[in-house]
C-alpha cells in the first residue's frame, strides 16, 4: 500500500519541531480528514536556510510533511513556490488514491509559510 519512502519518512521524519527564529509560518488543514500541518521556515538572502514541521494526522500526512521539508531546504523562495502537490507525492514513490489529499497539504503549508514570509518582508 505504501512505498518504502513513505514508510521511512513516517518512521524517521526529518525536520520535526518548531523553528524559534522562523520568519515565515504557515498552517493548513483538511476538515474532511482532520489533518493539520504547520511549517515554520527561516529565509536568508532568498534561500530557505532552515525549515521545521509539526503535523497532526495520518502516516501519509507525516511522510509528506517530512518529504516537503527535504525538498525545499536550501532552495530559493521561487524554487520552493514551484514545488507542487504532485511532486511531493512522486518524491515519495506515490501515495494511495485516498491519501493524495495529504500531499496537497504539504505543498500548501510551504506556500502558506512563504506567503507569510513575503508579507512580513513587505512584499
Brief summary of the model shown:
The protein has 5 helices and 3 strands, in the order H-E-E-E-H-H-H-H.
CATH architecture descriptor text: Alpha-Beta Complex
What sort of overall outline do the alpha carbons produce when their principal axes are compared? globular
Structural class: alpha+beta
Question: Could you say what the CATH topology is called?
Answer: Sufe protein. Chain: A
For this structure, what is the CATH class?
A: Alpha Beta
Gap between N and C termini: 43 Å
Helical stretch tally: 5
Instruction: Name the beta content range.
Output: 15-25%
Uncertain segments: none
Mean pLDDT: 93
Largest sheet: 3 strands, antiparallel
SSE pattern, N- to C-terminal: HEEEHHHH
In spatial order, strands of the major sheet run 1-2-3
Number of strands: 3
Helix content: 40-55%
List the domain count as a whole number: 1
What is the C-alpha radius of gyration, as a whole number of Å? 13 Å
Explain this structure:
With 123 residues, the protein is an alpha+beta fold. It has one domain (4-118): Sufe protein. Chain: A (Alpha-Beta Complex), CATH 3.90.1010.10. The protein is built from 5 helices and 3 strands. The chain has helices at 4-11, 59-72, 77-81, 85-91, 100-121; strands at residues 24-29, 36-44, 47-56. The chain has a 3-stranded antiparallel beta sheet with strand order 1-2-3.
Write the layout of secondary structure elements.
Elements: H1 4-11, E1 24-29, E2 36-44, E3 47-56, H2 59-72, H3 77-81, H4 85-91, H5 100-121
Antiparallel strand pairs: 1-2, 2-3
Amino acid at each position: 500500500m505504501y512505498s518504502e519512502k513513505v514508510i521511512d519518512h513516517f518512521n524517521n521524519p526529518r525536520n520535526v519541531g518548531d523553528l524559534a527564529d522562523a520568519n515565515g509560518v504557515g498552517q493548513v488543514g483538511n476538515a474532511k480528514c482532520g489533518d493539520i500541518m504547520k511549517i515554520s521556515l527561516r529565509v536568508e538572502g532568498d534561500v530557505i536556510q532552515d525549515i521545521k514541521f509539526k503535523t497532526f494526522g495520518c502516516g501519509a500526512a507525516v511522510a509528506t510533511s517530512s518529504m516537503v521539508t527535504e525538498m525545499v531546504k536550501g532552495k530559493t523562495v521561487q524554487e520552493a513556490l514551484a514545488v507542487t502537490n504532485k511532486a511531493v507525492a512522486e518524491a515519495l514513490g506515490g501515495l494511495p488514491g485516498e491519501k493524495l489529499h495529504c500531499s496537497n497539504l504539504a505543498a500548501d503549508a510551504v506556500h502558506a509559510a512563504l506567503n507569510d514570509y513575503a508579507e512580513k518582508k513587505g512584499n
